[in-house]
Specification:
alpha/beta; 535 residues; FAD/NAD(P)-binding domain; globular; seven-stranded mixed β-sheet
């Protein structure tokens, strides 16, 4: 039986990134992927005859430039097309707001709603960018681990020093964004409800919460620290869909010597004398490794793949309390024609942007309240992207595909109801919501793929349908992601590591957790790392 240096559970993008860095350092690595294709939630699939789309993760910004460069993704053929404007928000009164395309264009849009907001915009961008730069610097650094002694103290000092040197106004911005609700934060900058909605939408993406929830301002920030083609804060479309990214990653990984085994679901992490030594597959086969690395979320790992007797009672209690469930419902639709919005008829750059159905923060708050009470929103939040407007490989000529990313939908429905029984009705309701703003939309739908929170869990292994592998709340960030004392990618069992979005810096297609976990695994194999373990 082959004994690998590292066995990785899950072939999502972070698992691929982690495998690449380990193999590049000379380790013998094997990836075990449950599905018939690598990529995890970043995959492109045909969902209706002739129509392909990024079926779960659907847009690019947060992927780390270092990962792109090291894996030579651009040289391998990765092309990312930027949105001409960021977002387009139809309003209830028949108007609309377009966000992006440059400061002056956005200010001109804001003046339709508030001259004061237009004048405040440069200062807001500066404040957000200043804090986003802090996140960019921390994204590829391992957080200091609580209980880690002098080493942790030195790491904390090194990572905290740049923040301590910032002007006091910027430090106040950091405190605001990490602790306040999105509404409270945005209220200090803007007066127009449409303008606040344009920015506040980012606070509830993958966040089962209200924009009034304390800490939701951080989620807003998390979605702006990325970049596309060197442009900070930009978003774009990967030509060929998100699966193009992970297929090119898989090419890089295989070239580095990694073995990838598909249709190989893992049933259990194997331990011996308190150390992870391999995994047992559902088929009964065992794959042994000096390190076991989980690219699955903490809930799935510790509740289903690790034997209870291998964990302390206190740790099991923490796992039970770990918050997972992003309130997300995903749809992919095949369209006979482009949607025609009442507020802005015809084709145009607005159809190449993120189309946001959420005109105010109050609308978003009511959507969350509905989901808490009824299970799903009477007026859901919808972001629609139509990637076929910039990528003709996805649909037949003259026709289109659209991604519908929807919030808020309870991970578990109340009163014992099942998403298996309500998914079709919820999907109809989402289509009706878009049709309210684009009257031709319902008639243009040729086919659809529905992914309720339960479907997301079954198809992609996302506990509670959580696209972030766990809530991005203050108690589950940085050194506390997923748990304080395990924020350095090491699990509670020796030889068990975590490389997925349930680790720092969190959700999105970033590659950062995979990169960082690989560095820690290699450090543990070094002479100094072996000495520390021996002590």
């Amino acid at each position: 039986m082959t004994n690998y240096d590292a066995v990785i559970i899950g072939g999502g993008h972070n698992g691929l990134v982690c495998a690449f860095y380990l193999a590049r350092a000379g380790l013998k690595v094997r990836i075990l992927e449950r599905r018939a294709v690598v990529g995890g939630a970043a995959v492109t699939e045909e969902f209706h005859p002739g129509f392909r789309n990024s079926v779960a993760s659907y847009t690019v910004s947060l992927l780390q430039p270092r990962v792109i460069a090291d894996m030579k993704l651009a040289e391998r053929g990765l092309t990312i097309r930027e949105r001409p404007i960021s977002n387009f928000l139809p309003q209830e009164n028949g108007g609309c707001l377009k966000l992006g395309g440059g400061l002056e264009r956005t200010q001109a849009e804001f003046r339709k709603f508030s001259n004061r907001d237009a004048e405040a915009l440069p200062g807001y961008y500066d404040a957000l960018e200043g804090v986003a730069d802090v996140l960019r610097r921390l994204a590829l650094k391992t957080p200091p681990n609580a209980g880690g002694g002098l080493r942790a103290l030195l790491q904390m000092a090194a990572q905290g020093a740049p923040m301590a040197r910032l002007p006091i106004d910027r430090q106040r911005d950091i405190l605001d964004l990490f602790t306040k609700s999105a509404r409270t934060f945005l209220d200090t900058w803007f007066e127009s409800e449409a303008v606040k909605a344009a920015f506040g939408f980012d606070a509830i993406v993958g966040n089962y919460a209200s924009p009034d929830t304390p800490g939701s301002a951080y989620v807003l920030l998390h979605h702006v620290f990325g970049e596309v083609n060197g442009k900070k804060g930009a978003w774009g479309h990967a030509v060929g869909g998100m699966g193009r990214i992970t297929q090119l990653m898989a090419d890089a990984v295989r070239e580095a010597g990694v073995e990838i085994t598909l249709e190989a679901p893992v049933a259990r992490v194997l331990t011996d004398n308190g150390k992870a030594v391999g995994v047992k597959l559902e088929s009964g086969a065992e794959v042994m490794g000096k390190a076991v690395i989980a690219n699955v979320g903490p809930k799935l790992l510790y509740e289903r793949l690790v034997a209870p007797q291998d964990l302390s009672a206190e740790f099991r209690r923490r796992v039970t309390g770990f918050k997972a469930g992003s309130g997300t419902f995903r749809m992919n639709v095949a369209l006979s024609e482009l949607p025609d919005f009442t507020c802005l008829p015809g084709d145009g750059e607005h159809l190449q942007s993120g189309i946001i159905i959420a005109p105010t923060l109050d609308y978003m708050d009511r959507a969350y309240a509905d989901a808490r009470r009824y299970g799903w929103s009477k007026r859901p939040i919808v972001e629609m992207l139509i990637p076929s407007t910039v990528d003709d490989s996805l649909a037949p000529k003259g026709q289109h595909v659209a991604s519908l990313f929807c919030q808020q939908f309870a991970p578990v429905l109340p009163d014992g109801r099942s998403w298996d029984d309500e998914r079709e009705a919820a999907a109809d309701h989402i289509i009706d919501t878009v049709t309210h703003y684009a009257p031709n939309f319902r008639a243009s739908v040729l086919g659809r793929m529905i992914l309720s929170p339960l479907d997301l869990e079954r198809k992609f292994g996302l506990a509670g349908g959580d696209i972030m592998h766990g809530a991005m709340s203050l108690d589950q960030l940085w050194a506390a992601r997923p748990f304080l004392g395990h924020g350095h990618y090491r699990g509670p069992i020796r030889g068990l590591y975590m490389c997925g979005a349930g680790s720092h810096p969190g959700g999105g297609v970033t590659g950062a957790p995979g990169h960082n976990a690989a560095q820690e695994i290699l450090a543990d194999r070094s002479l100094l790392g072996r000495f520390r373990r021996w002590r």
